[in-house]
Each structure stands twice: as structure tokens, then as C-alpha cells.
């Protein structure tokens, strides 16, 4: 029964990847894949490599962009299954429980369909968890060294995907040094650390050549200080994770992680640095839901091992996932554009690109300028005929090969969200099946400079 359910979920996931429209952040990473390098301002390079491989096989299509993430998610399920069985050999069916819990969370079933850095991050963290289980099981000898090396390599690849993977490294170092097992006296952890360092060299070199811009951008978030809003930000964080994990699964994971403090303290060691960082961050800014991805392999594993009444959690989570899938594929519920997140992000871009081409011809300019990097990226993916897209966000300056350009006369595009239109300024609605989603202003401006993104 379980393999049948897993197979069905995989087929639906493939359908979603092919049918769900591309969202702006995916288009941004797609542009990265056109200019491969050792890093970028927002994240390391791994997602760009994955997109480059996928589009080499399937072309510049949403499915091609998401292909490596889909394959990686299958591997992540396998590695999580194997890690669960090795960490908890006395828990019957633990591997299947972990896979079921993972696949009924909205974050995995929907959030990992788009091609973002979270996809390779999650895949390599699951591989690291499996390798760590092998290293702790083998304890010493050549086998243990091999497992530690694999753990280091996979953690390094996770860091090459997203900087938050460094938090696992901090937790693992703490476990090796102070976990009470004397692991620091063995060769394996040190070899693993060397392997991890070697693997992240491209990311380190890129940062070194760019004034450590990537690490400073991500690390600088913790320096903000707005304690008066900490309660609001913490509430949003908890509410967001309850929604994305689904409430029942979230409760199982929280209880499981607490119970793991005795039998599997390594899971707590791996999770504590991230938890502490998020609690510090809520004193300065809101935590985006996908940042918590770094904890998901640990949470799912703990929830599957120690959670009770898992059947109910799977049923409730499965129903939530089915509802979201149905809405994504059919748009059957009459949601507002503010609540219909997938339509708001991904629908209507092709029609809008055609409208912009007509507007540019009316004005008599081949240039379209946007300050918003996401807006410029998704329009570049549409490849509007006869238009040259110029992005003005400083992010573009960190991508090699993007020429700079000053447009004498250009259409300047700005996101006005849901309106109203500004007096005396042209406007354009992006629509989904005739329903307005988002309002954009259009102005004719002169001597705007930026980077050519298409």
C-alpha cells in the first residue's frame, strides 16, 4: 500500500512540475544558469548548476528547470528512509513513516516543486544524515572514515546550495567535541571536515573575490534589532510552520525532537544552532518560511521515530496536499489574488509580456527597464520579441557576462501590487483567465542605466 501511495505522489509531483507556471525566483535562478560561476550575491551556485543540467536535457521549460530537483527529491526520500532505519533500528517501519510524513507536508509536496536553493539543500542534507548514521554506527576503522568523508562531502555540497547548511556544521562540530562519545579522538570526523572544506572552496573563492558579499548579506540579517516586533515575528514563524508542515505533523515533529534529547542527542545538536539563530533573528526581522528547511530532515526523522498516531497526521496532511494540488492545477476555488499565492506568483506572465511588447512599439522604444530583480527575471524568461530588458538591481552586477546599458528612452515598469493606479501614469494589469492579479505602472523615462538581462 505504501509504495503505491508513494508512486502516486511522485506522478502527481511530476504533473505539478510540468503544469505549474514558473515563478519569478525560478526565472532569476535560470538566469544564473546562463552565467555559471562560483557564487552569486543571494546564494551559492548549486541551484544554477542543477538548472543548467535540467535545461540541457529538457530545454528552457518549467519542467526542464525543475528536473534535477525532482530527481533529487526521489534520492532524498531514499536517503531519509535509510537514515531512519539506521538511526532507529528497533522502530519497525520507521523509514516508511518518515517518507510518509515528509510527503504530506505542504513544504515538501508544493514548496520543493519550484527550482530554488532549497531543493539541493534538502537533498544533500538527507545524504549527510544517512552518511552520519553510517559513521556513528561504524564508530571506528576504515568504514567509519569512509562514512565521515561522505558526510563531509554532502555537507559541503549543502553549503554550496545555501549558507544555512553551515548551521549543521556548527552543530556537528559541537557534537564531535562535546557529545560525550570521544569522537574527536578518532580520525573520521577530521577527515570529514577536510572533505567539507575542499568541497566549499568554489563558494569561498567567489566570496573572497567579491568582498565576502554573499556571506555578509546572509550573515548580516542577525545584526538587525527591532525587539518591539519580536512577538509578531515569532508568531508569524510558528503559524507559517504549522501551515507548511500541517499542524498535526508539526506537533509530531516538535514532540519527537524533544524526546530525541535522550536517545539520539545528535539530532538535537544538529538542530540547536538553527533554532537559536532563528530566535535571535525574530528580534530584528521576520523569518521567511523556507529558511526553516534546514531543520526539516531532522524534524521529520524525529517525528517519525517518536510521534504517536501518525496515521491521522498522514491523512490530514494528505488531504491538505490534495486540496492545494487541485487548486494549483484547476483553480477551482474562487480565491482572491492576494490569497491565491501560486496564481499571484506564476500566472499571466506570457500575456503581460505580449502587452508590454505592444506598449513599447506604441512608444517607439526597444527598452524595458525594471528595478525589481524578480520582475526583470520572469519577463526575461518570456523572451518578449523585440524588447531589451534592463535590470537596475545591484544583484545583476555580481553576475559575470551581463553587459551594462544606458537607454535613451525606455518604458519603466514598476509593481504597484493591487492598486490603485497612480494619477497620470499608465498602468497594466497582469491577469489569470480574465481575472486581474497584479497592477503595474508604465512610464516613459530617459537615460536609465542598468544591466541587460535579456
TrEMBL record:
It holds the Pfam family PMT_2. GO terms for molecular function: pentosyltransferase activity. GO terms for cellular component: plasma membrane. The keyword Transmembrane helix applies. Its main location: membrane. The chain crosses the membrane at residues 63-82, 94-113, 119-137, 142-159, 165-183, 190-207, 238-259, 266-284, 290-307. The keyword Protein biosynthesis does not apply. This is Glycosyltransferase RgtA/B/C/D-like domain-containing protein.
Amino acid at each position: 500500500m505504501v509504495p503505491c501511495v508513494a508512486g502516486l505522489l511522485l506522478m502527481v509531483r511530476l504533473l505539478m512540475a510540468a503544469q505549474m507556471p514558473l515563478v519569478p525566483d525560478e526565472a532569476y535562478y535560470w538566469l544564473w544558469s546562463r552565467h555559471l560561476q562560483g557564487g552569486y550575491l543571494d546564494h551559492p551556485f548549486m541551484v544554477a548548476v542543477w538548472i543548467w543540467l535540467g535545461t540541457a536535457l529538457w530545454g528552457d521549460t518549467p519542467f526542464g528547470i525543475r528536473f534535477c530537483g525532482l530527481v533529487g527529491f526521489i534520492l532524498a526520500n531514499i536517503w531519509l528512509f535509510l537514515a531512519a532505519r539506521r538511526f532507529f533500528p528497533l522502530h519497525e517501519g520507521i523509514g516508511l513513516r518518515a517518507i510518509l510524513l515528509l510527503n504530506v507536508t505542504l513544504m515538501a509536496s508544493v514548496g520543493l516543486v519550484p527550482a530554488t536553493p532549497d531543493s539541493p539543500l534538502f537533498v544533500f542534507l538527507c545524504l549527510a544524515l544517512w552518511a552520519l548514521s553510517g559513521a556513528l554506527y561504524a564508530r571506528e576503522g576504515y568504514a567509519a572514515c569512509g562514512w565521515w568523508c561522505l558526510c563531509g562531502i554532502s555537507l559541503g555540497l549543502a553549503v554550496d546550495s545555501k549558507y544555512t547548511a553551515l548551521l549543521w556544521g556548527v552543530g556537528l562540530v559541537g557534537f564531535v567535541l562535546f557529545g560525550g562519545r570521544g569522537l574527536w579522538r578518532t580520525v573520521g570526523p577530521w577527515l570529514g571536515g577536510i572533505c567539507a572544506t575542499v568541497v566549499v572552496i568554489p563558494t569561498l573563492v567567489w566570496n573572497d573575490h567579491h568582498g565576502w558579499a554573499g556571506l555578509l548579506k546572509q550573515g548580516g540579517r542577525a545584526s538587525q534589532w527591532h525587539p518591539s516586533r519580536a512577538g509578531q515575528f515569532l508568531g508569524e514563524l510558528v503559524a507559517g510552520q504549522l501551515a507548511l508542515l500541517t499542524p498535526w505533523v508539526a506537533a509530531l515533529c516538535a514532540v519527537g525532537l524533544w524526546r530525541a534529547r535522550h536517545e539520539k542527542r545528535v539530532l538535537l545538536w544538529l538542530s540547536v544552532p538553527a533554532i537559536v539563530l532563528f530566535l535571535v533573528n525574530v528580534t530584528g526581522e521576520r523569518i521567511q518560511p523556507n529558511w526553516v528547511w534546514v531543520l526539516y530532515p531532522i524534524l521529520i526523522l524525529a517525528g517519525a521515530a517518536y510521534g504517536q498516531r501518525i496515521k491521522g497526521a498522514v491523512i490530514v496532511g494528505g488531504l491538505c496536499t490534495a486540496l492545494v494540488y487541485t487548486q494549483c492545477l484547476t483553480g477551482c476555488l474562487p480565491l482572491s489574488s492576494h490569497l491565491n499565492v501560486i496564481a499571484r506568483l506564476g500566472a499571466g506572465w506570457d500575456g503581460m509580456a505580449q502587452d508590454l511588447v505592444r506598449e513599447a512599439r506604441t512608444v517607439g522604444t526597444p527598452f524595458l527597464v525594471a528595478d525589481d530583480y524578480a520582475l526583470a527575471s520572469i519577463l526575461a524568461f518570456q523572451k518578449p520579441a523585440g524588447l531589451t530588458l534592463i535590470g537596475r538591481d545591484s544583484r545583476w552586477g555580481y553576475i559575470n557576462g551581463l553587459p551594462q546599458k544606458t537607454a535613451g528612452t525606455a518604458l519603466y515598469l514598476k509593481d504597484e501590487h493591487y492598486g490603485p493606479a497612480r494619477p497620470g501614469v499608465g498602468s497594466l494589469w497582469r491577469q489569470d483567465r480574465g481575472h486581474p492579479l497584479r497592477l503595474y505602472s508604465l512610464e516613459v523615462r530617459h537615460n536609465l542605466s542598468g544591466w541587460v538581462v535579456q
